[in-house]
Structure formats: C-alpha cells, structure tokens
C-alpha cells in the first residue's frame, strides 16, 4: 500500500482545487492538514515546499496546496507539479497528464488562464473570502484590498457585474470552440478521458455562493458546463 500522503490546504478550498481532484481520481490514501492563510509561509518553509511565485518586491510567494509524506522531503507544491509528481510516483494509478501530452497540457493551462480564468477574479475572490475562517478572512481581505481596493466594490450588482459575467461567458464559449475543433462534441480536453488541466476546479469557483448566476452558467452551451461539473462529483470527497 502506498505511504499515506499528507496534504496541506486552506479551509474553505474543499474539493475546489486541482490537487484534491488529482488525489481522489487516483484513489490514493491521504490525510488533510488545514492551514490558515497567515501560517502558509511558515508551514511551507518547515516542510521544504518551494515558493510558487515571486511578489513584485522580489520576495518569495508561498502558496498551498502542498504535498508530502513522512519520508518525502522537500514537499511538492503547486497543483500541476503535484499532478506530475503523482503520475511519476504512482504509475499504476489513473494518469492525470499523459507523457506525450505534457507540453500540450502546459500550453493549454496558460491559454486557459489568459482566456478564461483571468476573467473570474472579480466574481470569485470576494466569494472565496466569505468561505474562510475569521483568521484567514482578515488576512485575505487585508492583503487583497491593499492592492485592488474594497472587495465589495470589485463586482457590485448592476452593469459592472453584468459585464464581468459576459466576459466569463465569452471565455467559456472560446473554450467550447477549442474542445470542438474536430467537429465533435466532447466534455474534456482528452476527449472521453478526464485530465488534470481541464478539471472542474476553475469552474467550481463560480459555484461558491449557490446563486442564480451559477444556474445560468450550467445552462450555457446547451447545458454542457452543467454536465461537465456532474462528471467530477464523485471525486469531490475531502479526507
């Protein structure tokens, strides 16, 4: 039996991160340890998880999720790197990123970010803040508002929010066209096979409030995005 995995993430992220999907899809045993936002940097340094980005002032940016075991040091952080590590370490489990498509997955992730996921921030980050525990909520609000202004003003009801949703719909429409380039309807980047880089996680961010707005998303494209989300429901368990 594989050595139990210790998985670190933020309370409120449950099953909406690609790494959650990766572990559940592979059926690997793991145990979650929750880490609040102010404690992420200290935890990452302790377990040897490298920074995943750099702040404008040049200082390292530490993020979760991160993955380790009792004998694995340093830890692995960032969802795509975790997926690649899991594929390499547990080759007898379902593959997340087939070797021959690795470069295409990396390119697709970048294209998806610029085309679609970048449009989500005004809608999803204020909603994310509402899911956090008080200690993380205060940190999240303070650090984001210092850069971008008051969260409640990012996407207020009315024309501004309507424009944000139109941008999201346009991005999803473009993704739909990518997935149908051969003239055939399919839900996934790999056809009938679920793969990590177009998992449901970037779309699940829109469902944080359970609002009527999310019901509209599920109807877009003739209901394809509702079906897309349903395909991942069995992998949303949090252990």
Automatic annotation (TrEMBL):
Tell me the ranges covered by the GST N-terminal domain, including all copies.
3-94
- Its domain of life reads Eukaryota
Pfam families, per this entry? GST_C_7, GST_N_2
UniProt protein name:
GST N-terminal domain-containing protein
């Amino acid at each position: 039996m594989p050595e139990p995995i210790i998985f670190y993430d933020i309370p409120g992220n449950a099953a909406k991160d690609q790494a959650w999907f990766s572990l559940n899809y592979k059926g690997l045993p793991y145990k979650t340890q929750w880490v609040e936002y102010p404690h992420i940097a200290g935890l990452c340094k302790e377990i040897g998880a490298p920074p995943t980005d750099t702040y404008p002032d040049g200082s390292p940016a530490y993020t979760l999720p991160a993955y380790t075991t009792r004998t694995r040091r340093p830890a692995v952080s960032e969802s795509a790197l975790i997926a690649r590590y899991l594929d390499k370490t547990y080759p007898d489990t379902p593959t997340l990123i087939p070797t021959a498509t690795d470069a295409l997955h990396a390119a697709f992730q970048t294209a998806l970010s610029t085309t679609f996921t970048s449009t989500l921030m005004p809608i999803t980050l204020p909603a994310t803040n509402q899911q956090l525990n008080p200690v993380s909520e205060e940190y999240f609000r303070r650090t984001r508002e210092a850069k971008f202004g008051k969260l409640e003003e990012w996407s207020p009801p009315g024309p501004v929010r309507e424009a944000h949703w139109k941008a999201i719909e346009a991005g999803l429409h473009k993704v739909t066209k990518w997935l149908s380039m051969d003239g055939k309807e399919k839900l996934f980047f790999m056809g009938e096979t679920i793969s990590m880089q177009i998992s449901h996680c970037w779309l699940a961010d829109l469902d944080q409030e359970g609002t009527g707005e999310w019901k509209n998303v599920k109807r877009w494209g003739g209901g394809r995005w509702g079906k897309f989300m349903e395909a991942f429901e069995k992998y949303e368990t949090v252990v």
